[in-house]
Amino acid sequence: MPKLCYTTETRHFCRLGGFMRSLILLLSSLCFVGCAASQKDAEKINFTEVKENLRFDNTDIKRQVFDMNRDGKVDMWKFYTIKQGLEQDAPPEYVLIRKELDLNFDGRVDRIMYYDAKETLALEEIDTDFDGRIDRVSFYDNGLIIKTEIYSAQCRQIVIDAPSNEQVFPISTRHYRKGIFTREETDTKCRGKLETVTIFNDKGEVSQVGYDHTGDGIIDEWIRY
């Protein structure tokens, strides 16, 4: 760009123009930083907790909601309750009691996790086929899985067609010891009676299988491997 600052006035004008250009550059850089920060903050909105006070089971509950896939819809909920045993004048502390997730982002909860007073997982319910019904329930002790019950659509249909007081039985029950899968019991007719029992060794290999041939829920035959 040609220099036109030959007179005192224009020279003064050039110095002013240089100052203005510097000011504009400074403001632009600040805007860039500010805009970048604003953009980052906007991106964090989907992941930042949104807390609300709710009434649930006659207890004050705090809720956090999250959008894990950034589609603008909530797909994870965390619920907290006031910690027990606090001193009277102590500020309230909240502990996690439940977490709900929409695993396939269709607007329905597919997984629910319940926690004990130490915020350790105690119970888990999952809708594995995303049909709106829980079909797998897992029980935990000190955070380690001890049992999983698996339910089938066939069993649920049997209950729907049966009297209202009919109980739903799992088609498969898996047992764990110290978090390791050790035994599976099956009830394909959903009657609440054992049909087969499979025992696994420490390596996860089948060691024994028991069969009920009479339908009375008592294992009649064991086959060892």
Question: Which residues sit in consecutive blocks of at least 5 with pLDDT less than 50?
Answer: 1-58
Order of helices and strands: HEEEEEEEEHEEEEE
**Main sheet attributes: strand count, strand direction, barrel closure:** 13 strands, antiparallel
Task: Say how many strands there are.
Answer: 13
N- to C-terminal separation? Answer: 90 Å
Q: Which percent band covers the strand fraction?
A: 35-45%
Structural class by secondary-structure content? alpha+beta
Q: How large is the radius of gyration? A: 31 Å
Q: What is the residue-mean pLDDT, rounded to a whole number?
A: 77
Percent helix:
10-25%
Q: Which overall shape is indicated by the principal axes computed on the Cα atoms? A: globular
Give me the number of helical elements: 2
Q: Which strands sit side by side, in order, in the main sheet?
A: 1-2-3-4-5-6-7-8-9-10-11-12-13
How would you characterize the overall build of this protein?
The protein is 21% helix and 36% strand. It has 225 residues and is of the alpha+beta class. The protein has a 13-stranded antiparallel β-sheet with strand order 1-2-3-4-5-6-7-8-9-10-11-12-13, with no helix packed on it. The protein is globular, with a radius of gyration of 31 Å.
